[in-house]
Amino acid sequence: MTTPRYADVQPGTEIPPRSYQVTRLDLVRYAGASGDFNVIHWNERVAKSVGLPNVIAHGMLTMAKAGVYLTAWAGDPGAVTEFGVRFSSMVVVPDDDKGATIEVSGTVTEKLDGNRVAVELSARSDGDKVLTRARAVVRLP
Amino acid sequence: MAINREYIGRTFEPTEPYEVSRVKIAEFANAAGEPSPLCRDREAARAAGYPDVIAPPTFAIVISMTGAAKVTLDPGLGINYAMVVHGEQSFEHARPLHAGDVVVTQSTIESIRAVRDMTMMTTATEIRTVDGEHVCTARSTLVERGG
Question: I need a labelling partner for B88 at 20 to 30 A (CA). Which of A85, A133, B128, B139 fits?
Answer without folding.
Answer: B128
